[in-house]
Amino acid sequence: MSVQRPLRLGMVGGGQGAYIGGIHRMASRLDGKWRLVAGAFDVDPQRGRDFAAAEGLDPARSYGTYQDLIAGEAAREDRVDAVAICTPNFTHYPIAKALIDADFDVICEKPLTATLEDAIALERLARTSGRFVGVTYTYSGYPMVHEARVRIARGEIGAVRTVQVEYPLEWMATAIETQGNAQAAWRTDAKKNGRGGSIGDIGTHAYHLAGFVTGLKLEALTADLAIFVGGRALDDNAHVMMRYEGGARGLLWSSQVALGNSNGVRLRVFGERGSFQWFQEQPNELIYTPLDGRVQWIKRGADDLSEDAKARTRTPPGHPEGYLEAFANLYAGFAEAIYARRDKREPAAIGRNVPLAYDGLKGVAFVEAVVDSHEARDQPWLKPIAV
Ligand code: NAI
Fold first, then answer.
1. What is the per-residue pLDDT across 139-189, written as a single tens digit (0 to 9) for each?
2. Which DSSP string corresponds to 264-276?
3. Cα–Cα distance for residue pair 210/166, rounded to 1 Å
4. pLDDT reported for residue 316
């Protein structure tokens, strides 16, 4: 194995006042596998440069636009290895395409793109170019999510019968997009966000989580979207009934208006011989209920966990790990996948089963199918109640 120098990271978006860029910066630092060396951090070039200066970046690698970043980095011997795209959804495709065309690897936020057409094109580009395109489906970074996945694949609960997955949030329960909240403003604009409101923003996480853990492939769905906050153009609540290949059923709920839920991601998988439950606000535990009803709380850090879970664990049980560590696991996994490609070897456990462009494409296809289903008004399952 060749020496693994830290990879050089560039970033587009994630500047002053932005949300997810800061999480990427912290997560990428945690394991020492990445160094942030370049950025075009803001849609406003000067604000972006000011931000880069405050981050202590070399001024020569602080760029006004992503096009300048690509031109500037492509001309350097120590060019960035990969660029993280931390901008609103509609910009993902043009930025990712320009990066891949210039031979950079990409770490792209979800949803992969704002339209299915763009997602298909980007996934094809990733495949044909051979560039690495990782997608930050945060919840697939948690060790106990991997543990559930491994145990289900081993057959511990038998064939899966039903999957209940939900992602309720509360922060958009009022029209904050009209009161200067930048994050809510673009998320409620179909041109910038894409057609799916809550379903595109967070339902896509839930859909990925359910498919990732169960290994099930979605066959068909039917959906009911709602807009509860007046003046909004996109759904802020979604219910989706799903049918997986092989006959398993699923229910998915995403909501931006579920008061009382700060970040209530929850997955429950029920099989022939048992069930697994995982709740993101208690991420260090996986609840296993076998057929005899003797509930077991499986702890992160326990000795008998899978290689996949152990590879994503840093501290002993009782020292909680959470969101930042899960995000860091994605970054460590992306680095390992990139090193393995370079060294022409199989990736170690941390670099296996990381979310890639194809997973991003599936997520966008899911969102499109949900909105299409809702907009098809002849849904035979929607029966009025007589009394
Ligand atoms: P935000 O509105 O807080 O930040 C967007 C940033 O992008 C701002 O700094 C803005 O100036 C910059 N920007 C916009 N256009 C640009 C351009 N052309 N060039 C350079 N910079 C540009 O948005 P937020 O909430 O951070 O979301 C960004 C992305 O991250 C979205 O795709 C969202 O879906 C995703 N996200 C993912 C999460 C996860 O758990 N993986 C959580 C939150 C957001």
1. 999 999 999 999 999 999 999 999 999 999 999 999 999 999 999 999 999
2. --EEEEEESSEEE
3. 9
4. 93
Predicted local confidence at residue 265, as pLDDT? 98
> Of the candidates 375, 116, 110, which has an alpha carbon nearest to the alpha carbon of residue 223?
375
Position 3 pLDDT exceeds 70 = no
Tell me how far the alpha carbon of residue 132 lies from the centroid of ligand 1, in angstroms.
Answer: 20
* CA 13 to ligand 1 center in whole angstroms: 6
Distance 48 CA to ligand 1 centre (A): 13
Provide the pLDDT for residue 9. Answer: 98
**Residues forming a β-bridge with 36:** 9
301: left (phi over 0), alpha (psi -120 to 50) or beta: left
Has residue 1 got a pLDDT over 60?
no
Cα-to-centroid distance, 88 and ligand 1 (Å): 4
Q: Is this structure's pTM higher than 0.85?
A: yes
The residue behind tokens 């931006």 is: 256
Residue 2: per-residue pLDDT: 57
Asked whether 88 lines ligand 1 (CB < 6 A), one says: yes
Contacts of 292 (CB under 8 A, 6+ apart): none
For a pocket test of ligand 1, which of 67, 86, 89, 325 has the largest count of ligand atoms closer than 8 A to its C-beta? 86
Which residues are CB-neighbours of 160 under 8 A, at least 6 positions away? Answer: 152, 214, 216, 244, 248, 269, 270, 271
Work out whether the CA dihedral 209, 212, 215, 216 comes out positive or negative.
positive
Q: Is the previous residue joined to 45 through a cis bond, with omega within 30 degrees of 0? A: no
Distance from C-alpha of 108 to C-alpha of 10, rounded to nearest angstrom = 12
Percent of residues, the chain, with pLDDT higher than 70? 98
- Number of residues that make up the chain: 387
